[in-house]
Amino acid sequence: MDLKFISNAAYAMRGLAVLVFVLITSETFSYVFSKTTNTVNIAAILSKDTSNGKITTFAMKAAVDNINSDPNILPGKTLSLSFHDAKISVFLNIIGALKFMEDDIVAVVGPFISMVAHVLTIIANELHVPFLSSISLDPSLSPFQYPYFIQTAPNDLYQMTAIAEMVSYFGYRYVTVIYTDSDMFSNSMDALGDELRKKRCKLSYKAILPPNTSSSSLDVIHNVLVNVRSMESRVIVVHAYPHAGLLVLETAKRLGMMNKGYVWIATTWLSSILDSTGINSTNAQMLQGVLTLRPHVPDSGQKLYFEKRWRSLSNGSIGLNMYGLYAYDAVWMVAHALDKFFHQGGNISFSGYSRVTGSKGTKRLNFVALRVFDGGKQLLTNLLQTNMSGLIGPISFISDRSRIHLAFDIINVVGNQVRVIGYWSNHSGLSVQSPEPLYAKPSNRSYFNQHLRSVVWPGNTTERPRGWEFSNNGRPLKIGVPLSTRFNGIHELIMDIFLAAIKLIPYQVPHEFVMFGDDHKNPNYTEFVNEVANNVSKLSIE
Description:
The protein has helices at residues 8-26, 51-68, 90-100, 114-127, 156-169, 183-198, 218-229, 242-254, 268-277, 284-287, 301-313, 322-343, 376-384, 435-439, 490-502, 525-541, and strands at 32-34, 39-46, 78-85, 105-109, 131-133, 149-151, 174-180, 202-209, 235-239, 263-266, 291-295, 349-352, 371-373, 388-390, 393-395, 407-414, 417-425, 429-431, 477-482, 511-516. The chain is α/β, with parallel strands linked by helices. It folds into 3 domains: 8-155 and 300-395, Response regulator (Rossmann fold, 3-Layer(aba) Sandwich); 156-296 and 405-449, Response regulator (Rossmann fold, 3-Layer(aba) Sandwich); 477-541, no CATH class. Helix 8 (242-254) links the parallel strand 9 (235-239) and strand 10 (263-266).
């Protein structure tokens, strides 16, 4: 896939970060801060007020407690975890990262916003501090361009591949997408477009939500959905922040767009909500028949034990979702990499910058507090060589830094429950069988090997929607009818036959009859055929 999707906003933020670090490196000298303490500092950048922020906070604290109580990992060391609440703010994410670079931090879990990741990874590259994220899954975050950034969950290229294969499996050819206007979402939509083209499908319409969509934006969402409703495609993919995604589905319900005939596919934002809050009487109706994906996590004793402990870990305040599992495992990944680092003879030391001078006569910028982690390159290597079993299953990385065994559950919301109708994996594609047994078999992505269980679609029907309707502003089907004097009344017979036939079609076909001839002499059939051909040519050009 050609990862060509870097927006102007990302370039601007990168430019800002590059400018900062050009200034930093313009006048520096190194000196070493050696750490004699037995405390090893790591950090997390998150948005505590969000559901995922709360869940990952509980999960990471539990991981640190378990690591520090385990004599077999980091013996003689204490792992310390600091949190920075970035409040879904680009600026606060950057400030948090710079703050941590003053505190002898050796690794960071985060950020939670892919747009910020483009900037923070420049900081990570410069100061040699690995960043690990299971939420910033922008496909354009190339490991070659951002070597100190590790995506611990499947990046969105894989999710978009799964959606494209679902669309093709159900026989649809045109897809409408509704997404938040930011790099993370737009880059993922570009990836979806690429994957759909491989299946001879296409994105027929893109509807964009403002990045700060909230309850005060209902008029904007309403207008977006009215435009979507006027299009022919009835297959709609929603890729947005969780709160915005729910507002889209809620508004769609009011507009009659959750009825029979529609296909709604929500990305993993919806499954994260369903896992953490469940389905209640408020959202049950608007979610009926919706399909969503969830990163696949195989059942294990380790996972089941953690799920049992979750209520006490979270004080019963919120349910556990996949991001909590990923965050827990990310802390353990760092612990194992550090344990290996110390066994390799590594020690925690930092090289610091003195001061930065701008042009002659300008005020000096003091970056003396920023420090380069001298062991960062080795720790990064250890992280990429991870080979462990976590809550999410086996964890190791292949050459492109994607995790082995990438898979998703495909979920159908029915009543107040979720049904797993199948799985997608990068090994076998769509299957009703759990991916684990298939990994031991040769990969088979053939069309005839793709299977999903039956779906209950919007409108509480098991009949697969056609996936399109004539748009409100579409052209009616034009039927040419010759006015023949040789066979009086033949044109009426032609129209009657057409009307009888069209009644057999289970949907409306807007149409109009176009008479050819003057009803005084027989029409020239060569001219009639040419007229039809000319009209077809005009339509194809338009």
